[in-house]
């Protein structure tokens, strides 16, 4: 394995009571990469991200971030440089767009840089700027997803994790969101780990990807390799696009 590995997961086992959700899952994310995890409903994608984010306890295995084991506690994981955009966005509807964005920076003390980052995020997502004083609950689903991404970026994460960002969004909004993610990765060298049921867009966007099937890693490859793989086409790409 090369030496710019940011996240290295080895033999991860996770259970919900008697349900064995992740079986010996091993994967890695290099600095600067977009890595996608694709898989069907119930494959374990959300469980994987929740366990990385310290929101679900692992039974065994290692989650190594920058050479050290990540603490199994959500607030500490954010402070280590990992931010999660959760499934279903979970923005605070009765707070304004600005307050939601500022919440993302709650672990930071560098006021001047926080202000600059806020301006940068508004430049990246101009519609958030237009709605900066509106309650977040009044935003469309697509705008709420952009807000959830902006909020996660306000923590200045070294690793940005996204759980099913396309859920419930129209195709045109999905394309807009993914073009922003590609821009964030290219211009800010933001490392991204993405779990997604929409295999087509997830593989098209990823440098590398893994297929998760009933809690096990089935295949690994570059996004291009997997897009052109006959088995993946047949099993995962049939209805995506
Ligand atoms: P989806 O796209 O539907 O969110 P997923 O790939 O993210 O699917 P998970 O939600 O991680 O899959 O679920 C993996 C397995 O763990 C499934 O069998 C699911 O039923 C089970 N599971 C998930 N959350 C819980 C929970 N809170 N309690 C019990 N079992 C759970």
Approximate helicity band: 25-40%
User: SSE string, helix = H, strand = E?
Assistant: EEEHEEHEHHHHEHEHEEHH
Catalogue the unreliable spans. none
Overall, the morphology is: globular
**What fraction of residues sit in β-strands?**
25-35%
The total of beta strands comes to 10
What structural class is derived from the secondary structure elements? alpha/beta
In round numbers, the mean pLDDT is: 92
Question: What's the end-to-end separation, in Å?
Answer: 33 Å
Radius of gyration: 17 Å
**Separate helix tally:** 10
Strand order across the largest sheet: 6-7-8-3-9-10
Bound molecules: adenosine-5'-triphosphate
Largest sheet: 6 strands, mixed
Describe the structure.
With 241 residues, the chain is α/β, with parallel strands linked by helices. It is 38% helix and 27% strand. It contains ten helices and ten strands. It has helices spanning 45-52, 74-80, 97-103, 111-124, 126-130, 141-153, 171-188, 199-205, 223-227, 230-237; strands at 5-16, 19-30, 34-38, 60-65, 68-69, 82-85, 159-163, 191-196, 208-213, 216-222. It has a six-stranded mixed β-sheet, with helices on both faces. The chain has a four-stranded antiparallel β-sheet with strand order 2-1-4-5, covered by helices on one side. Helix 3 (97-103) packs parallel to helix 6. The radius of gyration is 17 Å and the shape is globular. The two termini are 33 Å apart. The model has no long low-confidence stretch (mean pLDDT 92). The structure holds adenosine-5'-triphosphate.
């Amino acid at each position: 394995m090369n030496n710019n590995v940011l996240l290295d997961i080895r033999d991860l086992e996770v259970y919900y009571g008697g349900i064995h959700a992740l079986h010996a899952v091993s994967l890695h994310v290099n600095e600067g990469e977009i890595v996608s995890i694709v898989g069907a409903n119930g494959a374990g994608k959300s469980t994987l991200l929740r366990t990385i984010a310290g929101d679900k306890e692992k039974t065994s295995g290692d989650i190594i971030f920058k050479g050290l084991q990540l603490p199994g506690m959500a607030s500490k994981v954010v402070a280590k440089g990992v931010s999660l955009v959760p499934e279903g966005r979970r923005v605070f509807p009765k707070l304004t767009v600005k307050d939601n964005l500022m919440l993302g920076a709650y672990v930071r003390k560098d006021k001047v840089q926080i202000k600059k980052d806020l301006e940068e995020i508004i430049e990246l997502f101009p519609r958030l700027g237009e709605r900066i004083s509106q309650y977040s609950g009044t935003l469309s689903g697509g705008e709420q997803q952009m807000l959830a991404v902006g909020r996660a970026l306000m923590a200045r994460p070294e690793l940005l994790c996204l759980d099913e960002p396309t859920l419930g969004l129209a195709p045109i909004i999905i394309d807009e969101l993914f073009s922003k993610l590609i821009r964030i990765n290219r211009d800010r060298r933001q490392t991204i780990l993405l779990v997604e049921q929409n295999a087509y867009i997830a593989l098209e966007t990823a440098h590398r990807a893994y297929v998760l099937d009933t809690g096990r890693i089935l295949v690994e490859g570059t996004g291009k390799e997997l897009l052109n793989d006959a088995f993946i086409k047949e099993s995962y790409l049939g209805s995506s696009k």
